[in-house]
Amino acid sequence: MLFPAMQPFFWPTLPASPQPSLPSALAPETWAPELASRHQPPAPWAQDPAPPVIWSIAGNDSGGGAGLSSDARAAQVMGVHLCPVVAALTAQNSVGLQGVFPVPVAQLQAQLQSLAEYLRPRALKTGLLASVEAVQSVARVLDQLRAPAEAGGQPRAVALVVDPVLGASSGGTSFCSEALLRAYREWLIPRATLITPNRREAERLLGVAPGELRVPELAARLQALGAESVCITGGDDLSLDGLPQAAAHEAATEAHVEASAEAVTEPPPGSLPGTPMPLALDWFQGPIWPRMGVEPRVVSLHAAKAPIDGWLALPRLAPREGAPLHHHGTGCCFATVAAASLARGFPLPDAVLMAKMATYSGVRDGHAAGQGSGPVRPSARFLQDPSCLPVMSFGDELAQDAGVHLQRWRAVLAQGLVDMGAEAPGRGLSPQASGQGQGQGQGHAYRPGYYGLSSQPEVLARHAGQSLCSQLQLRLKRTPGMTDGDLLAATQACVAAVQTPGSRTQLWINDHWQLALQAGAKALHLGQEDWQGLDAADRLRLLDPALAIGISSHTPWELARARGLAPRYIACGPVWPTTTKDMPWHPQGLNHLRWWVHMAGRPVVAIGGILSAGQAQEAWATGVASVCLVRALDAGGPVLDEMAAVQPHFED
């Protein structure tokens, strides 16, 4: 089957494709394609012979900007089949909303039952419902759709994305009563896979005063009402998403921006010259996977993982002089892309990531229609555009040291604009993106070449200073009876053997970072869960410019989190199946790896299952900065000569 139920993807090698697709290495095994298809350019979503069906139950905008009109445009971008269910009629234009007319409940129910018979959805998205009866009707039909196909069976997977339209963002009529708010709380929120309010909508749903709670606290309250995951959008929130200490801390630290960051931190078009880049911040929190619809193996492998939460940041777009910002329909676009992503099999954090990317591109490319703000105009190009990929924080990093983190995110996002269009971003990055001039590690930029990884210090010592590997990593795992003293001694011996005066080989230490620093290491590799487990003080310590950081990534949302740290490199894997560790991710394949190189904005290291020179050559062809050798390095012998023969020539 060309398009299995939960396998997404796109590739930058297909610039002329009318509709690309995007990767998810977390797709359940039963829906994953054969491994070979991960190494061949996939067909674009627009060619899907059986596109996923989603329903949008929302209002009709007579001005064509928001509501079902915006939903249809977003669904086309995602290559899904949208069934538009009219829950309300509106009288509105680009200046404001003049009237809302709920559809009689019998007419709404007739539409829903007609679709339920022959066009069963993988996801529902709700927008303007406008009446208590409409909310109740949606909840009841959703329960029918989720009911097991047979007695005693598992509930059927139907995601519900709730965009709680409680008032028009463009001004005009208010149409949400207290009864309707109660209906949302009692009928829809407890059934929601994802709810996507802005801050004002979240406050109204919860009945709290404006500014009383910070955004993460609002999200926690909504989850307490039963929502499985929450994304509070901040594109329209000019108060920095209600972060009380952020503005003051940011002002106090702004004067201390490093010269390298200052050189690339430019405001987006329409901002005042000389001002810091304003950011649009969304907050997401929720599990990796929805409760229903994922095979048990995937659930069990991720069961021990903590829920994901964090800020997603992109530059705040500003209107150009003399023209409005065309943002009509942003909330509709965001929720529809999220629903379509869930229907295509993405995990929840990736669905939100894609929604932010698509909405950002839609606002940036919006067009005029009438005298006011025109509609957003998303296109599939957002999947290939590195400037649309946000950075994502590890939890609520803005609760402490907000100014420090905001500065770093601005620098990363601005650098993405500078590096856009580079032929091979994984190798040909600007000095700032590759770490040069930032005082990291041994003080030089990331040197492309093989990245050798071993748990044996003597193997690394043998390769230190040789031409094969420009990067070496010690990955010591604690064995029974091994003490901290044993680990420290082994690390010190490796540091002494590799970090010799004049050596151009960079040594990285994986795990045991405190012992690594005690041993004199200057470069550390951490996994995402390792970083997540650090407290705020330890994170700031490891972000010291005197240290170099490398970090792993396996999914688009992990890539967004890795980018936010401005690391020396980002690892992507496993490229091929690997037996060195048990992983909940499918092999990435060359297509995913190529996308990582195109989007990361940092040097990319390919890792996992690279055992032959032929595989290494294919990995090099994607534009990566390094190919990681693990078992091949330990084995030694002729295979290393073969690996050396296929390594590209890099200019010093």
- Decide which structural class fits the backbone: alpha/beta
> What is the CATH domain class of the largest domain?
Alpha Beta
Number of strands: 18
**Main sheet summary:** 8 strands, parallel, barrel
The share of residues in helices is 25-40%
Strand order of the largest sheet: 11-12-13-14-15-16-17-18
What is the mean pLDDT?
A: 81
Proper CATH architecture of the largest domain: 3-Layer(aba) Sandwich
Q: What Rg is obtained from the alpha carbons, in whole angstroms?
A: 25 Å
* CATH topology tier name of the largest domain: UDP-N-acetylmuramoyl-L-alanine:D-glutamate ligase
Structural shape: elongated
Distance between the termini: 46 Å
Task: Provide a brief overview of the structure.
By secondary structure, the chain is of the alpha/beta class. Helix content is 34%, strand content 15%.
